[in-house]
């Protein structure tokens, strides 16, 4: 069994409530059950924080023993050199995901400090972005 950590950053605890026209009407916890039912051979560990340092600590905690990390750092994607450095420092492959197409939004969202250190990036497929990330980690050798 593979163990995959899903780490969500700021404001993603408000999925289903926050800007439903951009992020949809479903909470992440509800969607996580869908993932667990679809990928029964995967153990998912879910973590969400609005605090940059806590996200870095969680990456350090899981980054040498898990089979993969799916990271949606939210707005920290565009501002946090520290999270980018944490992704670079760990050996577990990280897939960066975004629910919205960040390139169709404000120009400051076009920069990612995570992408250069991530195994891959999945952007703009709604919550299905997480599903695609899981599939990529399952197929990884």
UniProtKB/TrEMBL annotation:
Out of the domains of life, which is the source?
A: Bacteria
Q: What is this protein called?
A: 3-dehydroquinate dehydratase
Pathway where this protein functions: Metabolic intermediate biosynthesis; chorismate biosynthesis; chorismate from D-erythrose 4-phosphate and phosphoenolpyruvate: step 3/7
The record's listing under Pfam families reads: DHquinase_II
Keyword terms of this UniProt record: Amino-acid biosynthesis, Aromatic amino acid biosynthesis, Lyase
**Transition state stabilizer (site feature) positions:** 18
According to its UniProt record, the EC number is 4.2.1.10
Q: Does the keyword Lyase apply?
A: yes
Top-level class of the enzyme under EC nomenclature? lyase
Decide whether keyword Lyase is in the record. Answer: yes
* Catalyzed chemical reaction(s): 3-dehydroquinate = 3-dehydroshikimate + H2O
